[in-house]
Amino acid sequence: MRKTASALGYAVIAAGLATCLPLPAYAAGDTTGSTSNAGDSSTATAESGPATPALDAPSGGLLARSGIDGGITDLRDHLLAAYGVPEAKTPGPAWRFTPSLKAGVTYTDNAGLSNTGQSGAADAFFDLTPGIIVRHDEQPVEVDLSYRPTAHIYVQSGNYSQVEQNFDGHALATVWPGWVYFDVRGTASQQSVFGSTAASSQQNQGPGNRQTTTTGSISPYIAHGFGDSGVLQAGYGYIISDTGNPSYANTYQPFPGAPPGLYASSTLTTQRGFASFTTGEGLGRVQNRVNLDSNFYSGTITLNNAERITVSDEASYAINRYIAAVGQVGYENLSYPNIGYSYRGPTGSGGATFTPNVTSKLTLQYRYVDGKGGVFAQGSWQVSPRIRVFGGYSEGISSSQQDAQNSLLSADATTTGASANRLVAGPLLDSASSAGADQQINAVKRLDMSASWLLDRDVLTLSLNHEDRAPVGNAMAGQPLALPSVSINASAGWQHDLRENLSLAVAANYNTSQSGFAGGGTLDTVSVSLGLTRVLNATLSASLRYEGRMTLNSSQGFAVATNASDTQNSVSLLVTKQF
Questions:
Q1: Buried-most residue among 103, 309, 521, 523 (CB within 10 A)?
Q2: 544: which strand partners?
């Protein structure tokens, strides 16, 4: 809304003006953009240690996905929170509870649209979303939590009715200031089973293509600063992720002869031990980080008894206040015994970190990890006070559930209830949205690039997500299974404040997916949305929204065949009340 945009617009300008400020002379560039993908815990050098130490993200593997869903209501607030623009402090209690209730009705001309070619008749359904946001930003317990379950109640197709879980929470308890901390976090959301959909919006997916993914972690750890010498972090993590798919997917065979269970519901538990020491300012232009990260997996099908253990030594040298040379050497033990794939050998990387201003950081390297070499890039660049570009490119061995756990540990909850990818300072995307979620272990090449332009009354966004997945090892029961796939997702969004209390939101998305099933195939889809939101008073708003989806091209060789004529049009009326 215009009223919100004005206040937050000044925050964006203030953040952008910070780009004119120089960095401290010869500050050593940290190694957070290197092979480890670790979070930055090197900022604190005081004897008492960091005030709010970030939990290190897992080493190796892929970058968590990032991007922008242009159809999100209050897109400006969503972006600013993900970018880390500080929220204006207002007097009030330390604990803040913001309950809300959203109610709506939707008419669709194809209620059963799904990527399995199951078409459904026209129907209407009611949505009811009670929600609450809980925040507490003072020690000893800091909390950011959002819970918004949605009940979809169909008028005619009662078997489509369901309750959709949406949860995002993070709590950090300071047990012993400067020494002992306890990190608890979790997410629950719906994703596409088979992919081939918009980057994050699932409303135009049929019930047969929705899965609920729940991921949580508990991590007690120590973090302590030793003056200018450096910062120590060590701890234990227990991470669990559960994927609940439609019942038919448990025995679904994407093509004749394929082993069933590739899209089955599954659970993965990970026990993680980690330790690192990052040097401080005592070494001047040089910074060094020694890191150990061990992950032991227990789950269904391909991931049972798998493990990933990495040991590395990373170093950076600040050439000047803007450029630092970075490099890493290490050793990795990667093993997936159920599919006969492993790598035990050296890892390494070399490149540079660029810090053009205090709100920007870009890392570019060539790295060798998971037994494969490739380019690695990540970062966020505040091009001007109003324009920001962020994203990354990475390659590695991973699975859908490992991606979900990596995303959880690489993210922070925000004031809007959504997650931010702290490694690139941008919004986090569901890991399985575009490429789908199967149980295969894949060699993945992932590119995420996004840009936003925030004006006084307008927000414009662009996002591009590309993922290339090729299976490694053998499938279940030793059966070879060729499941290479490529997905490209491009989206654009525009929000405009028509008046102080009225805004327009337009978004468009194009997705193309190619699969190696049965000789190969292609699925191309396009979706659009158009919405009007009216603020009725300080706590009440109403929205009218249209969403449309069309399959432009499909072939039976694709993993999940669809009808070329599949289309879906939906019109929704929603009312949101905050208490």
A1: 523
A2: 532, 573
